[in-house]
Amino acid sequence: MTRSVVITGVGAVTPLGVGARTLHERWSAGQSGIEDGFGRASEFEPKEHLSTKEVRRSDRFTQLALAAAQEALEDAGWDGEPPYDPDRAASVIGTGIGGIGTLEANHIILRDEGAERISPLSIPLLMANAASGVVAMKHDLRGQSFGTVSACAAGAHAIGMAERIIRYGDADAVVTGGSEAAITPLATAAFGRMDALSDSGISRPFDRRRDGFVMGEGAGILVLEEEQAARERGARILGYVRGYASTSDAHHLTAPEPNGRGAAKAMELALKDAGIEAQDVLYVNAHGTSTPLNDRSETNAIKTALGEELAARMPISSTKSAIGHLLGAAGAVEAIATLLALRDRIAPPTLNYEEPDEGLDLDYVPNEARPLPNGDARAIGLSNAFGFGGHNAVLCLEAS
Amino acid sequence: MAATATREEIEGRVFEALEEFGAEPDAISPDADFESLDVDSLDLVELAQIVEDEYGVQLKGEDMEGVKTVRQAVDLVMSKLG
Questions:
Q1: By the CB < 8 Å criterion, does B27 face chain A?
Q2: Does the beta-carbon distance from B22 to A124 stay under 8 Å?
Q3: Distance between B42 CA and the closest CA of chain A, angstroms
Q4: How far is A94 from A340, CA to CA, in rounded Å?
Q5: What percentage of residues in chain A have a pLDDT greater than 90?
C-alpha cells in the first residue's frame, strides 16, 4: 500500500510577524515586512517563546526554529509529546548557513581576547544541524534527525526528505522545515560584495527594476504525518505533500542556468512524482528572488515545465516580495505560504511589481491578491526553491 | 583580588552564574545538586571559565569530575585558591 504524507501543523516566524497565519494574512493583504532594506523578524522576542536556558543554548537560527516548531506542533494537536512511538518520529530542518552570528561573535573574541575566552557553547550553537537536534531533543523525536544544507533550497530539501522518510516507511511523523538568521555583518557584507543584494533595498521580483535580493530571517516548520496514522489519531489535515523533486544545474557556483533547465526539470519531476498533470496546478509560488538572473531563468523554467500556454495563464507570485529572502528558511516558509494560500483559494500578490521586463511576461499577480478558481478543482500548487551551488528543489502541495 | 576572595563572594558569584544558566533562583542553594538544577557538563565548562576570569583559578575537566553540588564546586575553587 502506498503511504501518503499529510501536513497536520504549520508554524512560522517571519519578517511579517510570529505565526504562520499571520504571514499568510499579512502577505495576502499586501503588507511588507521589509524595513530599511532588511527583512528582520522584529516581532520575535526569544524570551517570550523559550526558557532562559534554551535562549542561552541556541543561536538565533535555532531559536527561530524552536518557536516555529512549537507553533506547528500545537497546530497539529501534539500534546507535549509525539502521538506516535518516539522512535518513529523524526526531525529534518534545513539552513543555508547555520549559526553564523555565533561564529562571528566568537571569532571577534578569539581575535581580541584569545582562544581561552571562546565560549564552550560555540560549536553546539553554530553547527548547521543544531536546529534539527535541539527540536528533536525538546520534543522527544528519536527517529532520524539531521540538517539539510543546500543554500536557499535547504528548507524545501528538508521537506522533500521528510516526505521521503515517511513514504519509505522509516517514520510516521517528521517535524521539518528550515531556519535562518544570517543578517550579520559578515554575511551581509559578503552577499553585498558579490552583488547579490539589492542596492535599493526593495524586493521587487520580476519587475524590470529589480536589483538583487533583500536579506530576511525567520523559520518555517511543518508537521508531516503518514496519512493513515494521522487519520487514526483524528488529526485535522491541512493538506498533502503530493510530490517532490530535486535537480542540479551543474552549471555555475552562483548563477542559475539561464534557460532554467534544472529548475524546469525539478518542476516536471515533482509533478510526475505527485502523479499530477501540469494543467491541474492552480498556483505557483515562485522562488522569485528579485535578482536579475533568477527571475529571468525561473520565468524560462516555468514556461518549459508548464508549457507556454499554461504558463501564460498561471498565477505566479513571490513571497520574497513581502519578506525578503529567508535563504535556508525560504523554501519552508514559502511552502507554508503556498499551502495556506491554496487552502484559502487565493493567490497572494507579488508586491512592488510595476514595470514589466522584456521576456518576463507571465502573470505575477502584481500587488493585489486574487481569488483562485474555486469549486470542484483540487487546490494544487508548486513551491519552487533554488540555491547557490545550482540546487533546485520543488514541492507539489495540495490543500485539503 | 584572587587571594582575598571570600567563600561568600565565590558562592555568590556561582549562584549568579547558575541563575544566568537558567536554573530556578529559588532552587539554588549550597546543597543543591547540579542535576536537579538542570545544569549540565556544558554549563560547568562555562562556570569554570567564569571562575578563571574572576579569581584566576584554572579548573580542568578532571577537577570537575565528581563535582555534583554547588557546595562541592565552591569547595573546589576555595581549595585551588589555597
A1: no
A2: no
A3: 7
A4: 21
A5: 97
Alpha helices (H) in A57-173, listed in sequence order: 60-75, 100-113, 122-126, 130-139, 154-168
> In terms of CA atoms, which chain A residue is nearest residue B19?
A52
| CB-based contact, A119 to chain B, within 8 Å | yes
Of A54, A116, A120, the CB nearest to B46: A120
Burial (CB < 10 A; 0-12, 13-18, 19+), residue A53, is middle
Name the residue with higher pLDDT: A170 or B41: A170
Instruction: Tell me if chain B has a CB within 8 Å of the CB of A313.
Output: no
Q: How far apart are CA A291 and CA A115, in angstroms?
A: 40
The answer, for B49 touching chain A at a CB cutoff of 8 Å, is yes
Per-residue pLDDT reduced to its tens digit, A85-119: 999 999 999 999 999 999 999 999 999 999 989 99
C-alpha cell at A113: 581576547
Neighbours of A72 (CB within 10 A): 28
pLDDT for B62 equals 85
Strand partners, A18: A13
Using a CB-CB distance cutoff of 8 angstroms, which residues of chain B are in contact with residue A119? 46, 49
Q: Is B20 on the interface with A (CB under 8 A)?
A: yes
| ipTM of the shown complex | 0.87
Q: Residue A131's closest CA among A98, A97, A106?
A: A98
Largest interatomic CA distance in chain B? 32
For residue A314 the three cell numbers come to 498561471
Domains of chain B: 2-81 (1.10.1200.10)
CA-based nearest distance A117→chain B, Å: 8
Structural contact between residues A135 and A93, judged by C-beta atoms closer than 8 angstroms:
yes
Which residues from A are below 8 Å from B38, CB to CB? 53
Task: Report DSSP letters for A20-77, one per residue.
Answer: HHHHHHHHHTT----BTTBB--TT--HHHHS-HHHHHTS-HHHHHHHHHHHHHHHHTT
What chain A holds in terms of domains, given with CATH numbers, is 5-239 (3.40.47.10), 244-399 (3.40.47.10)
